[in-house]
Design a protein that fits this description.
The protein is mainly α. The chain has one domain. The chain contains seven helices and two strands, in the order ββααααααα. A two-stranded antiparallel sheet has the order 1-2. A hairpin with a 6-residue loop joins strand 1 and strand 2. Helix 1 packs antiparallel against helix 2, helix 2 runs antiparallel to helix 3 and helix 3 runs antiparallel to helix 4. The two termini are 31 Å apart. About 3% of the residues have low confidence.
Length: 165
């Protein structure tokens, strides 16, 4: 199960997910969940960059997702590319959120290689969760009837502009 959190005092949300749950769902769905998860990880990094006004956290999660999918058809080159660039974005995200221990790219590479990608999923989500520790927990999206007044404001126009690109 995942917990929604607000990103850095903005209206953007991220999810603290169970890293082993990511692996389990990826295996059970034969990789389908991984495609959606990869998009959301890269979208959360983009949103963090917008909220913190930091560059280097990506601006097109669809491109990363397309590279992930294309890797299955093009000898994994696009998948390796998106894994490397997402790892770099996570490093930048750690710096942007003031994490004392920034993800080590060599450790990430070894985990991705020696676990045939499966450990990379767990490690990536584990490192993403580090950024979301201490962020305010968002109210559930299904808060019930009459609770609309308690929900946060709709997304800012800046986010809508980026999503409409």
């Amino acid at each position: 199960m995942a917990t929604d959190v607000f990103i850095a005092g903005s209206d953007f949300r991220a999810k603290v997910r169970n890293p082993w749950g990511v692996l389990g769902l990826s295996v059970i769905t034969l990789g389908i969940y991984t495609i959606f998860w990869w998009y959301f990880v890269n979208r959360e990094l983009r949103d963090l960059g917008i909220a913190k006004r930091v560059s280097g956290l990506g601006d097109n999660p669809w491109l990363s997702t397309a590279a992930w999918i294309a890797g299955g058809f093009l000898f994994y080159v696009p998948t390796v590319w998106t894994a490397v660039t997402t790892t770099r974005r996570i490093q930048a995200g750690h710096r942007a959120t003031g994490q004392p221990d920034v993800l080590n790219g060599w450790v990430a590479a070894l985990i991705w290689i020696f676990t045939l990608g499966l450990g990379g999923l767990v490690f990536t989500q584990y490192e993403m969760n580090k950024m979301w520790r201490g962020e305010p927990v968002a109210p559930p999206a299904h808060a019930g009837a009459g609770a609309d007044a308690d929900l946060p404001a709709p997304p800012t126009s800046e986010r809508e502009e980026i999503e409409n690109r």
